[in-house]
From TrEMBL:
Biological classification of the source: Eukaryota, Viridiplantae, Streptophyta, Embryophyta, Tracheophyta
Organism: Vitis vinifera (Grape)
GO term, biological process aspect, one: cell wall organization
Chain positions recorded as Mn(2+) binding sites: 286, 310
Subcellular location, record wording: Endomembrane system
Name of the protein in its database record: Cellulose synthase-like protein G3
């Protein structure tokens, strides 16, 4: 696991072709490891100290401190997963041509989820879709599926508009080699001017106004719908149709080979899906939506590679799928590689980010840490999968027939009938969907839950962190949304803790010790609230009880003599600095020659 980084830093692979990717341990790894050993000693000393203090006098305060510090210590131990083998990787897209021709690239199905047109504005979801439809990827290999869990005709309307605008937008991006392919972000960035820029900009603004007007009004007037086929599509919204109770709606908006852009080139497939919802049938939230996408796409295109995106997360780099191919097309790649995860990077957050919406520790530090083990967890968006991982472990997946049904038109009656059938709410009942197949049910954080189960089955993953963010998304900006998200995540994470495959019990055995700890770190994340709450009230309680919570005893005499003489005594000898750590009950032992001027007093804080 460790040390391979250095040896992999060479320019050609063993088969003589230039390398597609490299991987190396980060330079801070040895320092991290030394730090971990030192820190572990201090934590043990601290817990020992609390324990001794408890023996001397058992008060509620000392019990609370012990509890708080025990939880902090546990969380710190689980976080070791991120520090032992932090890994960085590089890909070389320019070497892809040595491995495969464009026509040999695997097909790619993109899944975009949205759930509520009033919380996630359809125009944002449209921007997400346009940004991936314009990927630098062979168009005949690309399909985009939009899952609308809100079952809203407003979203369908937005996508009908998007399909028309895309026939102008895609050639504009490709001919002018635009890098920013999300139209909203492109026009906001003061782009360089091309002869068609003004025209395309006003087209975009017209589309945006139409979509926003319709959402504002909450209904679509007939003069907004130019096409008979489109009027028919909306006829499915009958009076009984509600977001929680409706039949499946699947609408093929663009079909490759049939629909052309304004320069006469093919358009990628674009399919709108709103799965069947019934009050008496569990929908399993996003995991349920993603499983319907897996099944419907299997009936239509069945691409071996899948990308999942949240509706609010657009592509910021048209070459992203090529980066993934650098791993997937490498013949020497571990066949157990199941998915490639890109970090979530958020835009529009103010500098101070008081709610930590950016989650930088997760995306900048922890994913690289997990990458050196069995691989990062899924983070819900920006994940490229091999389709087969949803159908069993690495040793048991049958090779699926990729040509199955793909020769038929996706608008054909047969294909559509099948697609509607698998989008039904009872289709997955009494099957392995959600337990052994597809995204796993049972947790609101389906991403962590599913990736944990996949890694237990033996699948591995890779963290891909290019300099230019591959995707940019939205994060809660106010306290209300932020608390809502935290509550939802906490419930979902506790569901992972209390499921029968708890990471501490199963994970450390089925994946590996450190990865298991890494998953435990996330699953036990709600437990941070225990020490936070205790430490929030501790000073006040101590004040009321007239007890001191900050200690006076000498750590050197307490720890060094009784517990761990080295390296702390060496440190004291070399530096002459005594570290003082005391006790809230009484002075345990006073050291003889403590030089007041060179004595550091501080409480020990974990992490
Ligand atoms: O029943 C549902 C619920 C949600 N979603 C979609 O799932 C995505 C994420 O849901 P959101 O409510 O925005 O949750 P967040 O907390 O913002 O999302 C983070 O956390 C989720 C749960 O871990 C992950 O799925 C996401 O990818 C990750 O960005 C959105 O696009 C929703 O439209 C559905 O399609 N159906
Ligand atoms: Mn979100």
């Amino acid at each position: 696991m460790g040390g391979e980084g250095a040896t992999e830093r060479k320019s050609t692979a063993s088969h003589g072709l230039p390398l597609l990717h490299t991987r190396a341990l980060m330079r801070r790894t040895p320092a991290n490891r030394v730090f971990a050993v030192v820190y572990l000693c201090v934590i043990l000393a601290l817990l020992y100290h609390h324990f001794i203090a408890l023996l001397h006098s058992t008060s509620i305060l000392s019990l609370l401190i012990l509890l708080a510090d025990a939880v902090l210590a546990f969380m710190w131990v689980t976080s070791l997963a991120f520090r032992m083998c932090p890994t960085e990787r590089q890909v070389f897209i320019e070497h892809l041509e040595h491995y495969a021709k464009e026509s040999e690239y695997p097909a790619l199905d993109v899944f975009i989820c949205t759930a509520d047109p009033f919380k996630e504005p359809p125009i944002d979801v449209v921007n997400t879709a346009l940004s991936v439809m314009a990927y630098d990827y062979p168009i005949e290999k690309l399909s985009v599926y939009v899952s609308d869990d809100g079952g809203s005709q407003l979203t369908l309307f937005a996508f009908m508009e998007a399909a028309r605008f895309a026939t102008h937008w895609l050639p504009y991006c490709k001919i002018n080699k635009i890098v920013e392919r999300c139209p909203e972000a492109y026009f906001a960035s003061n782009p360089s001017w091309f002869p068609e820029t003004d025209q395309i900009k006003s087209m975009y603004e017209r589309m945006r106004d139409r979509v926003e007007n319709v959402v504002k009004r909450g209904s679509i007037s007939n003069d907004y719908i130019p096409d008979q086929r489109e009027i028919e599509a909306f006829s499915r919204w009958t009076d009984e149709f509600t977001p929680q109770n409706h039949p499946p709606v699947i609408q093929v908006l663009l079909e490759r080979g049939k629909d052309k852009d304004i320069t006469g080139h093919d358009m990628p497939n674009l399919v709108y899906i709103s799965r069947e919802k019934r009050m008496d049938s569990p929908h399993h939230f996003k995991a349920g939506a993603l499983n319907v996408l897996l099944r419907v796409s299997a009936t239509m295109t069945n691409a071996p590679v899948i990308l999942t995106l949240d509706g609010d997360m657009y592509s910021n780099d048209p070459q992203t799928p090529l980066r993934v191919l650098c791993y997937l097309l490498d013949p020497s790649m571990d066949p157990k590689l199941g998915y490639v995860q890109f970090p979530q990077i958020f835009h529009g957050i103010n500098k101070s980010d008081i709610y930590d919406g950016e989650l930088r520790h997760v995306y900048q530090v922890q994913l690289s840490g997990m990458d050196g083990l069995a691989g990062p967890q899924l983070v819900g968006s920006g994940s490229f999968f091999r389709r087969k991982i949803f159908f069993g472990g690495p040793s048991e997946t049958p090779e699926m027939n990729q040509d199955q049904l793909t020769s038929k038109s996706i608008r054909s009656k047969e294909v559509l009938a099948m697609a509607h059938h698998v989008a039904g709410c009872n289709f997955g009942n009494q099957t392995k969907w959600g337990t052994k197949m597809g995204f796993r049910y049972g947790s609101l954080v389906e991403d962590l839950h599913t990736s944990y189960q996949l890694q237990c089955e033996g699948w591995k993953s890779i963290n891909c962190k290019p300099k230019r963010p591959a995707f940019l998304g939205n994060s809660p900006l106010n306290l209300h949304d932020s608390l809502n998200q935290t509550t939802r995540w906490s419930v979902g994470l506790l569901e992972v803790v209390f499921c029968k495959h708890n990471p501490i019990i199963y994970g450390v055995r089925f994946i590996n010790l450190l990865s298991g700890l890494g998953f435990a770190y996330y699953a036990f994340w709600p437990f941070w609230s225990v020490p936070l709450t205790i430490y929030a009230f501790l000073p006040q309680l101590a004040l009321l009880n007239s007890t001191s919570i900050f200690p006076k005893a000498c750590l050197r005499s307490l720890v060094f003599r009784q517990c761990i003489p080295f390296p702390w005594s060496l440190w004291t000898r070399l530096s002459g600095v005594h570290i003082i750590w005391g006790d809230n009950t009484k002075v345990v032992e006073q050291s003889e020659n403590v030089d007041d001027e060179r004595t550091l007093k501080f409480p020990i804080w974990v992490d």
